[in-house]
Write a structure and sequence with these properties.
This protein has 296 residues and is mostly helical. The protein folds into 2 domains: 69 residues, no CATH class; 221 residues, MetI-like fold. The longest helix is centred in the C-terminal third of the chain and has 33 residues. It starts with a helix and ends in a 5-residue tail after the last helix. The C terminus is likely disordered.
Length: 296
Amino acid sequence: MESKKKLFARNRETAGERIFYAVNALVLALLCVLLFYPFLYVVFASFSDPVRFAMHSGGLLVPLGFDAGAYKQVFANPNILLGYKNTLFNLIVGTAMQMLFTCPAAYVLSRKGYMWKKVLSLFVIFTMFFNGGLIPTYLQITALGIDNTRWAMILPKLIITFNLIILRTAFESVSESLEESARLDGANDFHVLLNVVLPLSKPTLAIIVLYYAVGHWNAWFSAMLYLQKRELYPLQLILREILFMSANSGTSAVTNMYTDTVKYASIVVATLPILAVYPFVQKYFVKGMMVGAIKG
């Protein structure tokens, strides 16, 4: 009985610990507010009355009135749906092809006994710090004849070195005994990768898919360089045009009135879909990053 009392007393929080936990919770709450408030400000500004918003300065806790005219101007552009279609095509096809190439490459670099493994690893890491630069890359794309095509948005980014290294580290954490057992049952490298390594690396795979998908969703600079056909423009280029049109002094007075709120509405339109996907993979986020950071 006395030992239980001592154990209970030892497990009780002291006054200093309670103060620490309270201060810690307060600091984390403030950080959450500071990180989340900019997005709330954008949403509130996009729904605000443009006249009242133009005269307002400082923060926003609620929309200034309610006016969805900025969103009407954004979606009034006939190319907005085409931009979504092109971006989704680049995201789905591009991410699938990137994973198709990244997973086997990471598997080869993570297994022991492969010929030239160290040389290939050094070559891969070298490309992460040194590249040909903008002009040589542009000349290469045009020489291959894939400029002004959808492939210009997919092939140059087929493997991102940083993502490859994270995935390689995750594959290295898979127990060798599981691979040996599979090989005793007659499995080859393809079966080991597909049936052993990939199922045990789902958290990291989810993170890499998210990284690739966000990269395709936000891609605009490469589209601006390589695409001249408007029917191939992704969403980001369409929104960029809308912003320029709303800021053009030659447009109507109604359009000029919505210039500021259209900027915030464009941010919401470009950001909200990818944010809607994040809750489905956030449970893998921390675990996947930790697995990818265990080894060098």
